[in-house]
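We include the pair:
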Amino acid sequence: MVPVRVTARRRPWLWASLAVVLAFLLTARACGGGNSTLLWTLDGRTISGGDFLRPTMWATGATLAITRAREVTGYDAATGEVRWSVPLAGRVCAASARPAGDRVAVQFGQGRHRCDRVAAVDLKGGRKLWEQPMPSAERVGEGQVVVSEDVVVVDEVHATAAFRLDDGRPLWDRNSRDVDCAIQGLASGPALVAGQTCDADKGKVRRVEGIDPDSGRAQWRYDAPPGYVVKAMVSSRPVVLGLDGDGPGGDRSRYVVLGPSGDQITSIDIAGKSPLLCYRGPHRCNNIVATGDSLYIRANVRPVKDEKERTFAPVASFDLATGRARWSTENPGGNHLFPVGMDGGRLIAAQPKTAGGARGQQGEPPRLVSVDPATGKTSIMWSLTRKSDFRVRSGADRLYAQDRFFLMKQLVTGKEGTAFRAFGRPDE
């Protein structure tokens, strides 16, 4: 099925009231709002082929690429028209979360328990660069794929393997059967960081290692303090970890910043459980953004019984060098803010729709909000469709790039009428 492109329907009577409408729009734009612009959509079957799939999307230039059932497809980010398609000899299992330049890596195979191949794809040229089998002779399950310093690393239940991004040459592999501790979760980027779980941990990650991508050798090790487990690996340079309390009285969370040698630089303690949503490993978490010197998180709010006392979760900013709080936002319109990502010199956040007033008045639709990183001051950018509200407030994948906002369901079943939405500025 082709993408559904959303266009305006013109009627003659609109011209009669053009002046009134134009005046209204100019007023709305001057107030920092603006109308929703839904550019195009994709249904679930188009993405997943009718089966379950956890797709990945990347924005590069004017192209928005998405992993589909058995291919990677590049769409025109503004119109949804297919620009290119890279077929794969099997079903997509996993993919790297972020491009390295214009290149990504994809794990695929003949089924969820036969994810035995990996390939690199050039998003700019729309072509497959190379394809390699996984070194394990066993049935390879759905794993995690990252790219770090021009090295592709694939981790699955019983093995980890690395390939050179340029040509696919195998670099190293590690069998985790019959060992005391095994890799569980990777964070990539300028450096490679791996979470580890040991037999005594019962599947919980309490140790993190910095790994040389070329050799697979551990360079340093960090152990979580007693009473904490590693929930998120937010960034690899600097290394930023999200810890959750474990065991009795574990209703607490902490963010830890590590130096190049794994030494702790600072920590940030947060009351209550972490608001992070990490659905596909500790490196893919919503509601948090890290830069070289700052951490932006959706803050916790205390539950209340009286709706009149309800408060809304702001975005809070912290200095990664000192751990000190810088500011928290005054949320416009009265609803939570979810940090999405950086766009040049500003932080982009998404806000769900607000409650309506008396006499059946509708509240504000979901919208995008710009946040000044220096002061925390917010500015309303533009609105989204009301039908996108659940995806905005849930664990959907959110991506902002090139003045466009992309929203995609984390797990696509193939039955969704709309599993992906692309939004643009009102004047696009």
